[in-house]
Design goal:
The chain is α/β, with parallel strands linked by helices and 708 residues long. The chain contains 13 helices and 36 strands. The longest helix is centred in the first third of the chain and has 37 residues. The protein is elongated and about 135 Å long.
Length: 708
């Protein structure tokens, strides 16, 4: 359907009559000449006359078309592509989705794509009538809970657009579509349209959503209009996409090293790309990357730091998208923990000793470079030990303790200490249940031996597993480590009584769903029970790679170490959680912009945590525990952008159309060079540029023909 923005100018088409009139008035009459051999001349004259008439007719048509095309071009014709069949008279309801992810900060000649997106949104609002309603939403996680209502007030809508800012999260087109559908479903206007203003990065389109989303769109939406502010261009980008620390604990030399990953999302090889590492705002080391097109390179950086807590980042030179040119990290000194290991079954051969593998797990490098400092004593030496001098006490296959030491152990735990019971051949369940009744996180029931010599399920050795919600002490487990749990074999275990004690929580289970490690808070402290031995008498766990991080993390958790959770990288808009030490009032956080927030503890899955939601900015956040029993040192945790948004690969119009199914959809560019507009929710492709181009071609052709 062709329409005109300036139909009155179509009267200019009458100008096509001017060449016809000139042609008629300028018509020449033939002159008669009498001459001998006239027949020859007459035949020659007829051929010339036919050519002359044909050229004049062509010139007449070209000149008439020239005037007609010029007049139609001035009338600005366009072709309507009405997504919902709107005739331009019915009121419409419109939801405008503005992509506010960090890829929209991509700037060309100093102008970010987000600036063009806001201009496009204003243009849409400006062309709505007083009877049209609209709402404006973003598509980042920061705006995921905002569901505004449709309104007629265009000035208010323009104010909403003016207040939009690009964030640092990834694109979530489908979550924005969910909110748009929610807004439009309750509206009674027959024509409901969604406008998506985006750079069309593939990362923003959740393909799984469209399995059900196609039907939701088709049932509730008249048409979807997608405006590509990147003007169909394929943008390249270079980004710091990964940071992995090799060691984040202090050793005697203060060495720290990490591996950085830089990705090249462009068709050109990058040579000698400078990367600089800053610690506490001072440059400490630098290196160079050489990366093939559409590839990445990993490089290791090493440096020294002084004792204490530090923050820093690695950065590459600024390009068109600066949001992903830095990646932040934090180095928090581990809290030193003194651990007493009471060996209930010492051996002449130290390799067979009950505490041999446990000591190596607590301090793998020897020389007390670990944050866990173990001290070993036998049952005969325990009388001379003062439990208050330690943070954690391990009872490893201890047959019995003097009554006075049991009472001291109870006071130690209730005042904030931590105790771990590991079992063995010397342990009697009845003695433990009676003597350690105030401490045990679970009452012991009976020993069970698995021979593994017959093919009966019950007789096969047990392994480890996670049952239900992952315990906070096990959050260090990666997917690889979780798979390794099944490789551990237990040939003998202690079953606990079925009824758990109040407050007891299972850290890990055996493969038959009975508790393997249980913990419980007692007073201000915590107690843990390992339902097997800590040496190789009953299990091969001590020789598995999982043993060291398992023991160290368990110790940090039950002792309430304040730095246990700070190593984990947090991405923008993710919640940061920190275990709340016993009886701590508040935690004070400070974001990269200097804004302070006081967090009270809250209970999640029966555990007390500090939870921080305002991770909107990438950078280093600091926190301070307001507790006189803790050292008043600042700790840090980094927040980084999600590297998936750094890949600016576009999703094609063909793919989008396929995803939308039978929903009326139009994908277009916001480029002014294409002269496309959006009027009342209708996509209109202007034709006057084409007509001007044709007029120019006719003018050239007329000049060529007239010279013949």
């Amino acid at each position: 359907m062709i329409s005109f923005l300036n139909p009155l100018l179509l009267f200019g088409v009458l100008g096509a009559c001017i060449p016809v009139i000139i042609h008629l008035f300028n018509k020449k009459k033939a002159i008669s000449h009498r001459f001998a051999a006239i027949d020859f001349l007459l035949q020659s004259n007829k051929r010339i006359y036919v050519k002359f008439k044909l050229r004049q007719l062509i010139l007449l048509i070209l000149r008439a078309c020239l005037f007609a095309f010029l007049a139609m071009a001035l009338a600005r014709p366009f072709v309507k592509n009405i997504g919902g069949g709107n005739d331009g008279k019915n009121p419409t309801s419109n939801v405008i989705i503005v992509d506010d992810s960090y890829s929209m900060q991509y700037a060309e000649k100093g102008k970010p794509l987000f600036h063009a997106a806001k201009n496009t949104a204003r243009n849409i609002i400006g062309q709505l009538t007083k009877d049209d309603k609209a709402a404006v939403i973003g598509c980042s996680l920061a705006n995921s809970m905002i569901v505004p209502e449709l309104e007629y007030d265009k000035e208010n809508l323009l104010t909403v657009i003016e207040n939009l800012r690009p964030g640092y999260s990834t694109t979530h087109i489908t979550s924005a579509l969910d909110r748009a559908i929610e807004i439009l479903m309750s509206d009674e206007t027959p024509i409901k349209q969604i406008f998506i203003i985006t750079d069309l990065t593939r990362n923003g389109w959740d393909l799984k959503w469209f399995h059900d989303g196609q039907q939701k769109l088709q049932n509730n939406i008249t048409g979807v209009h997608i405006i590509n502010v990147s003007e169909g261009k394929d943008y390249g980008n270079i980004a710091v996409t990964g940071l992995e620390f090799q060691n984040n604990v202090f050793n005697k030399s203060g060495d720290v090293s990490f591996k950085a990953t830089v990705s090249n999302y462009s068709p050109v090889k990058i040579k000698n790309l400078l990367a600089q590492v800053y610690v506490d705002q001072k440059k400490v080391v630098q290196g160079f990357f050489n990366i093939e097109a559409y590839s990445q390179e990993v490089k290791e950086f090493s440096f020294k730091v002084e004792k204490g807590n530090h923050f820093g980042w690695i950065e590459i030179p600024e390009d068109n998208l600066i949001a992903d040119n830095k990646r932040y990290f934090a180095i928090n000194e581990e809290q030193k923990l003194d651990v007493l290991l009471i060996d209930g079954d010492p051996k002449t051969n130290i390799y067979e000793s009950e505490t041999f593998y446990l000591e190596k797990a607590l301090n793998p490098a020897r020389g007390h470079v670990s944050s866990l400092k173990p001290v070993i004593c036998s049952i005969h030496e325990v009388e001379g030990m003062v439990f208050e001098d330690f943070d954690i006490v391990f009872l490893c296959n201890v047959e019995m303790l003097p009554y006075e030491k049991i009472e001291e152990l109870e006071r130690f735990v209730k005042d904030g200490g931590a105790v771990v019971f590991s079992l063995g051949d010397k342990v009697e369940g009845s003695y433990y249940n009676n003597s350690f009744e105030a401490l045990l996180p679970h009452r012991l029931y009976t020993k069970k031996i698995f021979t593994g010599n017959v093919l009966i399920t019950e007789e096969q050795p047990l392994s480890l597993k996670i049952s239900g919600v992952m315990h906070p002490a096990m959050r260090f487990l990666s997917e690889t480590n979780i798979n390794m749990l099944t490789s551990v074999s237990f040939h003998q275990v202690f079953y606990v009584e079925p009824a758990p004690l109040e407050g007891a929580k299972t850290v890990l289970s055996f493969s038959d769903n009975t508790p393997a490690i249980v913990e419980r808070q007692v007073g201000k402290g915590r107690v843990a029970l390992i339902a097997s031995s800590i040496d190789r008498d009953w299990t091969d766990l001590p020789v598995k790679p999982l043993f060291v991080p398992l023991i160290q993390q368990l110790c940090r958790y039950i002792s309430g170490s304040t730095t246990g959770e700070t190593k984990q990288e947090i991405l923008v808009e993710q919640n940061w959680q920190f275990p709340a030490p016993y009886d701590v009032g508040n935690l004070e956080t400070t974001n990269p912009g200097g804004v302070k927030t006081l967090l009270p503890p809250q209970v999640i899955n029966n555990e007390k945590y500090f939870v921080y939601h305002e991770t909107h900015l990438p950078g280093v956040y600091s926190f301070l525990i307001n507790d006189t029993s803790q050292q008043q040192n600042l700790f840090y945790f980094p927040v980084n952008v999600d590297a998936s948004e750094s890949n600016l690969e576009k999703i094609s119009e063909k793919e989008i159309t396929a995803l939308m199914g039978e929903t009326n959809v139009m994908v277009r560019s916001s480029s002014s060079g294409e002269r496309r507009e959006v009027v009342r929710g209708e996509a209109k492709t202007t034709l006057w540029g084409v007509l001007l181009l044709l007029a120019l071609g006719i003018l050239v052709a007329e000049s060529f023909v007239s010279r013949k």
